[in-house]
Amino acid sequence: MPTLRLGASRDRVRGSGILAGVPVEIAVVGGVDGARLVELDREGVTRLGEVGGAALVLGGHASPEVDVVVSSAGELDAVWVGRVEPFARNVAEGRFAMAAGPPRLHPWDAEWAVVAARLLRRLGRAAALPGVVWDHIGSTSVPGLAAKPVIDLQMGVPSLDALPGLAQALSSVGFVDVAPHVPGSPGVLRDTPRGRFGAGARWDKRLFASADPGRRAILHVREIGSPWWHHTRAFRDLLRVDAGVRREYEAVKRDLAVAHAADEGNDAYTVAKTAFFDSVQHHLDR
Fold first, then answer.
1. Other Cβ atoms closer than 10 A to 39
2. How many CB atoms lie within 10 A of CB 278?
3. Which of 37, 40, 182, 217 places its Cα 20 to 30 Å from the Cα of 135?
């Protein structure tokens, strides 16, 4: 059985004793002051590293690997307070960045694809298992479609029963296991059966989410060939090529966002979209 290649040091945090996790690896490029970042980190919740192993990259200018552009000392201080330190503390304490408030749709943004590609590269380096299939899925993967600004990613694995050390590996790049926090939320441990499927179809899954408060992202781990591994990819591809279905889906989402505008979270909105999935299921079945 192959083991997962971990992307960061396993040293435990020392110092105040407040945190019990692993220091998050941060990379700085393009003239960003790494010494100032070390100075700001009074409790050792981060460590400076290379772009190839980092969970977050700060850069002096935009590039495919840079998460945050920092152009001055003042901006670096603000990014530390508003993003880097909360991110590091979330990872160390096993928390992910949760949705705040009701579902809110944003116009499609080409940057979503750039972010998804960057996160997939990091995840692929951290969880370097043979036979894995990585995908950008969900509404942010469909050009022109309004969406909640949450990047949905999928890790297709040969077997859900053979993933030793997965949570530890993904934590090294800032993704946290969701199940210990909200096991009863839709799609956390199991997908809802739908469509045509044979005996032995797998509906179980694992779900991870980014601890980065500046960029919400979710990673669905499903077995390759399972119904929902197929459905997510087929639905994305349908929306990309069929403008009529895409417009209809966006209208449904906008109506549901209004209907759930007073909700505390996104669960009811997510469940309500099932009716639309039912209407296009015939396109998705093999």
1. 11
2. 11
3. 182
Residue 256 Cα distances to 19, 99, 110, angstroms: 40, 17, 24
Among residues of the chain, what percentage have pLDDT more than 70?
A: 92
Helices 274-284 and 243-259 pack at an angle, to 10 degrees, of 160
Q: What is the DSSP letter of 51?
A: G
List, in sequence order, the alpha helices (H) in the chain: 34-40, 73-79, 85-92, 111-126, 166-171, 227-241, 243-259, 267-272, 274-284
CA–CA separation, 147 and 139 (whole Å): 6
**Residues linked to residue 177 through DSSP beta bridges, in sequence order:** 208
State residue 121's pLDDT score: 97
Bridge partners of 29, per DSSP, are 59
**Residue count of the chain:** 286
Distance CA 142, CA 109 (A): 10
pLDDT band at residue 98, thresholds of 50, 70 and 90?
Answer: confident
Residue the block writes with tokens 């600004």: 149
Q: Using alpha carbons, select from 217, 243, 220 the residue that is nearest to residue 144.
A: 243
Neighbours of 184 (CB within 10 A): 8
